[in-house]
Design goal:
The protein has one domain: MetI-like fold, CATH 1.10.3720.10. It is built from eleven helices and no strands. It has helices at residues 2-9, 58-94, 96-110, 114-125, 137-151, 156-169, 173-180, 185-221, 233-240, 249-276, 278-307. It is mainly α.
Length: 308
């Protein structure tokens, strides 16, 4: 719901949205900039989230900021999840020199200060000077560059978790049976081990995505992420923190959407884990069988008591 609202309201990828303002439009102040929406009577108004001091629509700015946060979240989650699953799976299954090389690579990357690296990449991605190697592309895709770079350094924790899960699963009886039957390594990994590790993978990818939103928010808050005239949720919080006492709605709505996005992705991760984890399916099937057996054994007793 938040995803659809953010990307359809103010538009994205060159497609116009249904909301009449964008994040840079300036209009005369309505209601002294306070939100025009109300719960009773239910009304939306001209500027439901209010306006800033110069007349920009806060709803449009918040939706644009949510787009930036979701973009970073998806990029980091997809890249970190894919790289972490590959590195951790190969290290846990093949062991030996493969594990040694991949885990040493993980140790090297894990000591890199993530916030410092993100700050450097954010500054490079937002350069506007002529002749820069990122000029032109970075001017419109700074968040994409930031998400890609951070995705390639955010997979180390996930790789270690996947490696531990593979180390446990590769010694199970069903893997030994598949190996004896002549199954290839690729079939064992993708058919037998990976489906049983998908619960751990999904939960930790969603945690990584939530952390990615907070990281982007922190960078923008510190002035190292998204730059004006573009905006992000963290940048909105940073710009409006001084107005918290006099115009608190400028602070409330961006902060509320940060919380909602993080909670939503965690709830989605829990649901996907329960849906795709084979162990959850087996537990539910076993519970259903036991319930059926219990009802079938109690039915004759109930009939006998009625007859007597």
């Amino acid at each position: 719901m938040i995803f659809l609202l953010a990307f359809t309201s103010v538009g994205a990828f060159g497609i116009p949205g249904w909301w009449k303002y964008n994040h840079v439009d300036v209009s005369p102040l309505v209601n002294d900039g306070a939100p025009t929406s109300s719960f009773w009577p239910l009304a939306w108004g001209e500027h439901p989230f209010g306006q800033d001091r110069i007349g920009r629509d806060l709803f449009a700015m918040t939706m644009r900021g949510a787009q930036q946060s979701i973009t970073v979240m998806v990029l980091i989650g997809a890249i970190a999840g894919a790289v972490g699953a590959i590195v951790g799976g190969l290290a846990g299954y093949f062991r030996g020199w493969v594990e040694a090389i991949l885990m040493r690579l993980t140790d090297v990357i894990i000591i890199i200060p993530l916030l410092l690296l993100a700050a450097v990449v954010g500054q490079i991605a937002n350069r506007r000077d002529e002749g820069s190697w990122l000029t032109g592309f970075a001017a419109n895709n700074g968040v994409v560059i930031l998400g890609i770079f951070l995705g390639f350094v955010s997979w180390v924790g996930l790789a270690r978790l996947v490696r531990g899960e593979f180390l446990t699963l590769r010694e199970r009886e069903f893997v030994d049976a598949a190996r004896i039957s002549g199954a290839s390594n690729a079939r064992i990994i993708f058919k037998h081990i990976l489906p049983n590790a998908v619960g751990v993978l999904i939960v930790n990818v969603t945690l990584t995505m939530s952390a990615a939103i907070l990281l982007e928010t922190a960078l923008s808050y510190l002035g190292l992420g998204v730059k004006a005239p573009d905006t992000s949720l963290g940048l909105l919080v940073a710009q409006n923190q001084e107005a918290f006492a006099t115009r608190p709605w400028l602070f409330w709505f961006p902060g509320l959407f940060i919380i909602l996005i993080c909670l939503s992705i965690n709830f989605i991760g829990d649901g996907l884990r329960d849906a795709f984890d084979p162990r959850q399916k087996k537990f539910k099937a076993k519970t259903a069988i036991e319930t059926t057996r219990h009802s079938s054994t109690t039915a004759p007793v109930a009939d006998a008591s009625k007859g007597s």
